[in-house]
Amino acid sequence: MKKLAYSLLPLGITVGLCLNIAPASASLLVREVISNAALSIDGFGSTTNTGIIQADIPANSTIQKAYLYAASVWDNPVYGVTFNGNTLPLSSATILGPNSNPATTARWDVTSIIASSFKEGLQDFSITENGQNDGAALVVAYSNSSTQGFTSVILDGELSTGGDTIRFNFANPYIGGVFLVSLASSFSKQPVMGQHQVTVVDVTTNSTNNRRLTRSAGGADDRTSGENSDNGNLITVGGIGDNPANVDPTARPSGTNPDDEYYNLALGNSANTTPFILPGDTFLSLATRNPSDDDNVFGMFITSGFKITTTPIPEPSMKLGIFGIGAIGILLSLLGKKS
After folding, report:
1. Which strands make up the sheet holding 38-44, listed edge to edge?
2. Of 100, 183, 200, 326, which is least surrounded by CB within 10 A?
3. What is the DSSP track for 227-271?
4. Is-contact 298 144, C-beta < 8 A?
5. Contact, 267 vs 278, CB < 8 A?
6. 53-64 b/e with 16+ CB inside 10 Å = b?
7. N-terminal to C-terminal alpha carbon distance within the chain
8. Strand, helix or coil at 115?
């Protein structure tokens, strides 16, 4: 596998913020807000319904939370899985809601499985689908000395293909810090003849209005090596092996799939090197739409250079109080993705 390594070193940051996350149509809900933690994220898809999914967890880490997601082949049923030798029936899963598109996505809490079996570094976990799903995603929140001051946020549900918006309101102006965003999507084939199966994402802040982050999210990036894109492996999630440098916002999936669904909003892109979020901004809005009306975006996973505490209020909103972080240094080593 090809190995990639990227360093993100936001230093000397002090932030005092309060966020109110309230999806406009309540299609992605805040599932977890985990202080002093970072995320390992990977995807799996195979028309054979069996293979491996990975986690990359540094030495001396503590597992805080782990979720396994399985997505249906659009409007077909979703099936249970066997994960690392553990049978996970559909009856033990949470089915994501609200029901905003025809797909069905199941979520299992696999914290105890990961905590009892993980080894330091990149690790394979076996997975077998007990029927034809469109793939799976594994999200692991872990903490160690290098993740202090960070926060992991896990949002899941079903984005409406016609358009959705998630807005983050800051009580105090943003003054800096890494802001990694990963999307998880199924039933999106790229490239295809005719209308591309993509999700478009636009960013709005005080300093920018409807700035294009990507017009090409989707595809089967996490399908098993050697397989052609087809029902059963149409899964992609930004994470292990992906590059947080933002995609060319004009790129289309013609011949290749340009987007790896992994973004850093504290950076710009090839069209404009200005970061998407700037010091002084007091809100961040992410607007999505799926022109082909047939992609299932079921997860958004964030690692930020903020320390966050929560004051629960009724869903779909959650109040997030963010308070100071001092000097932060982190090295994110991302190892090669299956392709």
Report:
1. 38-44, 133-143, 62-72, 105-109, 94-95
2. 326
3. PPS-TT--EEES-TT---SPPPTT---SSS----SEEETTS--SS
4. no
5. no
6. bbbbbbeebebb
7. 9
8. helix
Q: Half-sphere exposure of 26 toward its Cβ, with a 13 Å CA cutoff?
A: 8
Question: Which residue carries 């993100």 as its tokens?
Answer: 8
Cβ–Cβ under 8 Å, residues 17 and 306? yes
Strand partners, 129: 81
pLDDT in tens, 221-275: 778 889 888 999 999 999 999 999 999 998 887 666 688 999 999 999 999 999 9
- Spatial distance between the Cα atoms of 244 and 258, rounded to a whole number of angstroms: 13
Burial 4-24 (b: 16+ CB within 10 A, else e): eeeebebeebebebbbbbbbe
Q: Is the pLDDT of residue 15 over 50?
A: no
Q: What is the C-alpha separation between 314 and 39, in angstroms, rounded? A: 26
Pick the closest to residue 35 from 153, 156, 139, 175 (CA basis). Answer: 153
Compute the Cα dihedral for 89, 138, 47, 252 and give only its sign: positive
Tokens read off for 311: 């004051």
pLDDT tens digits for 104-152? 999 999 999 999 999 999 999 999 999 999 999 999 999 999 999 888 8
Q: Are 297 and 4 in contact (CB under 8 A)?
A: no
CA distances from 11 to 178, 278, 308 (A): 10, 16, 18
Give me the residue spans of the domains in the chain: 6-332
Token pair belonging to 89: 């029936």
Q: Name the strands in the sheet holding 318-323, side by side, starting at the edge strand that comes first in the sequence.
A: 208-217, 199-205, 283-289, 164-170, 17-21, 318-323, 307-311
